[in-house]
Specification:
seven-stranded mixed β-sheet; globular; 531 residues; 27% helix
Length: 531
């Protein structure tokens, strides 16, 4: 029986029987999210928090339905209005494509929400990549959700937004796995693919629409055996899978095309998804055992830290500007006042490119980099209308967490024989210690005695304190900066402090200029770092 529901921008409330049931949340018939119901003190009353990635879209009116994921039965429904907006709720990207929350908590397109040409492109590219990998001598096969859809339905899962491939390597040592993965990346890039590295064992091939937005992905996971039966496929799979269950590869029909798959696909699916793999559950989310996660991250690192957060934020239309526009303008004015005339500058974490374009329009040559493709798409679009000289500002994909590519970029700058300057506004506090270490090593490589690296960052706790999944709540005290840059031969001068208003409370900020150390330089007193 269908029951009424209520919804605000924070919660969805309705009544349902029992817990553990997988449900789809629909706006005007479109699935925007799937989740499992969790038991409460009153097992009939359900209160669900909206996913953070979906909240920016909760404005307007919609027919909201809660449906059983398996049977499609409507459990609760009602007309809902979020806020004062009377227009229909629109959960779409810049291309007008419907978006849904995927298994990683990010908004993305799915096969069920777009036209059939999307599905056709995704399948065709998957087949093409498998052919190329085979030509390069790799043992490649469909895996993950792609294998699940092929075995269970003979097709791509309706709620999927990418395809997954595995490449079995002969190596067992993590260092050899990493070297092989980098070799594979070079070979794929030579074939013209856009490759994003998630770790030294995980690659992602990215395809774009005509206007530069992301269309779809194909993931490539390296796989290997640590012992006779211990199968490993980062980022999630580690367990007992005899080699006979994987090899020889066998043809499996996927969307009408024969593609290579494991010899015993059911055995592979069980160690990945558990014994209930054959039961459809669009709310499924990976829960990687901590010992597996630690082992894979210690072996192969993680170069995808917070990228999902920033992709979702920029997809929702957020910009790189601070919540307090006056504070942000003051930070930008400091950068402009500090730079020598006609400088060459790198804008770190450039976001939508607003700062990079403003600095460029003031007479400087600027390269802005970011690891969010959505941010870069917005930056390119903004430059077309706002940049006075399109040749004076350039945007490129670069990931601070990928030390290899960051230092390659640094070597490129050094060979130009120019004094490069750097701007990192509201970046350092949102990086992990490993990310900052990469950045400071990069500065050590590139900066000469005339170079300046300007940075503004929050130094105090947010009112929501530290939330690991939201880098906007992080902070970076000045004494941390001092201790982290000293080993790289860098020093910092505090230019000024200020406060700014944010969604996470009033934050104290510091603006510093970082330079290469001089032999005669005397380290500042500790008290000056606590100003």
């Amino acid at each position: 029986m269908t029951t009424p529901l209520t919804a605000s921008r924070r919660k969805l409330r309705f009544e349902a029987q029992g817990s553990g049931q997988a449900v789809d949340i629909r706006f005007d018939g479109h699935r925007v999210w799937s989740t499992e119901l969790v038991a409460t003190a009153d097992s009939h009353k359900i209160a669900l928090d909206w996913p953070p990635a979906l909240r920016p879209y909760l404005s307007g009116t919609t027919k909201l339905e809660v449906a059983d994921s398996g049977s499609g039965e409507i459990l609760a429904s009602g007309a809902v209005r979020f806020g004062l907006n009377s227009k229909p709720v629109s959960v779409r990207d810049a291309e007008g494509r419907l978006l849904s929350i995927n298994k990683w908590g990010r908004l993305g397109v799915s096969v069920a929400g777009v036209d059939t040409s999307f599905r056709e492109r995704l399948i065709a590219h998957t087949h093409e990549i498998l052919d190329h990998l085979a030509e390069l001598g790799y043992t490649a096969y469909i895996t993950g959700g792609t294998l699940l859809g092929a075995v269970r339905d003979g097709d791509i899962l309706p709620h999927d937004d990418d395809t997954d491939l595995g490449v079995l390597l002969d190596h067992s040592d993590p260092a050899d796995i990493s070297l092989a993965s980098y070799r594979m990346q070079r070979e794929l890039e030579e074939l013209g693919y856009d490759v994003v590295r998630h770790s030294t064992a995980h690659l992602q091939l990215t395809y774009f629409t005509e206007n530069g937005s992301i269309d779809h992905y194909v993931d490539i996971f390296t796989a290997f055996y640590r012992s006779a039966d211990e199968f490993c496929q980062p980022i999630h799979v580690r367990g007992n899978l005899p080699i006979e269950s994987l090899l020889p590869l066998v043809p499996i029909e996927f969307a009408g095309i024969s593609m290579p798959g494991p010899a015993n696909p059911e055995a592979w699916l069980e160690i990945c998804y558990g014994p209930a793999w054959s039961i459809p559950n669009p709310s499924f989310a990976f829960v990687t055992p901590m010992n597996t996660r630690r082992r894979f991250e210690n072996w192969f690192g993680s170069q995808n830290t917070n990228r999902v957060f920033w992709e979702s934020r920029h997809t929702a239309g957020s910009t790189s500007a601070a919540a307090d526009a006056r504070s942000h303008r003051r930070e930008l004015d400091t950068v402009l006042a500090t730079l020598p005339p006609g400088s060459s500058l790198v804008d770190v974490g450039t976001g939508d490119g607003a700062d990079a374009i403003t600095i460029s329009n003031a007479g400087h040559h600027v390269i802005g980099f970011d690891y969010s493709y959505k941010a870069l798409s917005r930056a390119h679009a903004r430059a077309e209308t706002e940049a006075k000289n399109s040749h004076a500002v350039e945007f490129r994909y670069l990931n601070i967490y990928d030390r290899r590519d960051l230092l390659t970029f640094g070597a490129e700058l050094v060979t130009q024989g120019t004094s490069w300057h750097f701007n990192a506004t509201n970046v350092l506090a949102g990086l992990t210690k490993e990310g900052r270490a990469n950045y400071f090593l990069f500065l050590k490589l590139v900066m000469n005695p005339d170079s300046l690296a300007i940075a503004t960052f929050d130094t105090n706790y947010s009112v929501t304190h530290f939330r690991g999944d939201n880098p906007l709540t992080w902070h970076y005290p000045l004494d941390w900066l001092h201790s982290e840059i000293a080993p790289h031969g860098l020093t910092a001068e505090l230019l000024h402090t200020a406060t700014r208003r944010t969604a996470h409370g009033r934050r104290r900020t510091a603006t510093v200029v970082i330079r290469r150390s001089h032999p005669s330089h005397t380290e500042p007193e500790a008290a000056s770092w606590n100003a």
